[in-house]
Amino acid sequence: MTLHREGKSLLLTAIIIVLAINALVAYFLPEQVYIREAVVVVTAVFYLLLVQFFRVPKRVTNINPQHIIAPADGKVVVIEEAVETEYFKDKRRQISIFMSPINVHINFNPISGIVSYFKYHPGKYLVAWHPKSSTENERTTYVVKHENGTEVLFRQIAGALAKRICWYAKEGEAVIQGTEFGFIKFGSRIDIYLPLDAEICVQLGDKPVGGETVIAKLA
């Protein structure tokens, strides 16, 4: 299993803490076998959950200039027309994907093109499904300009548990559909804003696979 670079230092710290806790319990409670075993189980489960969170899955993207690929694993929680107020300042088709703590939190470029806009916004840590999380939480905004001139906006949004958003692309850079553009730690959401004539290919409650599932098609 490959582990993501964003998790390596945390996992090293976590294993040291887990070993220290078990050593202390064994030292101070040498005769409490059930307690010692319970602590071993709990700390092992905790560590395994961290490991699975930072795993890097193998994904195969079928690159297609008309397709919008899911930027993350998770659950589709919003499909609607909405006014995008930061960049487009007009109505767009919005798709939002909520990532729970058990999902892989790697973020994938939904299309190929040039990053025409990027901005980081510090902010609050409301739960990711809160209506105001898109405008008040810590977040980043990316806009990628497609080869045909169409622009697609996607926004990383921190949640109540997510305390760090990582991003790798820069304004002016070329990006390739399905490649990694960022990572959000411990629960979060991604909003995608598409042209009104885009064909939506998912439904509420669907669980797309980041880097693989086609969530929309450009006209």
Unreliable sequence segments: none
Helix content: 10-25%
Strand order of the largest sheet: 2-3-11-7-6-5-9
Classify the fold: give the CATH topology of the largest domain: Glucose Permease (Domain IIA)
Q: What Rg do the Cα atoms give? A: 20 Å
Folded structure, characterized:
- The protein is α+β, with helices and mostly antiparallel strands.
- The protein has two domains: 5-53; 67-217, Glucose Permease (Domain IIA).
- It is built from three helices and 13 strands, in the order H-H-E-E-E-E-E-H-E-E-E-E-E-E-E-E.
- The chain has helices spanning 8-28, 33-53, 133-136; strands spanning 67-69, 75-84, 90-99, 106-108, 113-121, 139-145, 151-158, 165-167, 174-175, 180-184, 188-194, 199-200, 214-217.
- Strands 2-3-11-7-6-5-9 form a seven-stranded antiparallel β-sheet. It has a three-stranded antiparallel β-sheet with strand order 1-13-12, with no helix packed on it. The protein has a three-stranded antiparallel β-sheet with strand order 4-10-8, with no helix packed on it.
- Strand 2 and strand 3 form a beta hairpin.
- Helix 1 (8-28) runs antiparallel to helix 2.
- The longest helix has 21 residues, at 8-28.
Provide a quick synopsis of the model.
The protein is α+β, with helices and mostly antiparallel strands and 219 residues long.
Could you list some keywords that capture this structure?
33% strand, 7-stranded antiparallel β-sheet, 219 residues, single chain, alpha+beta, 21% helix, elongated, 2 domains, Glucose Permease (Domain IIA), 3-stranded antiparallel β-sheet
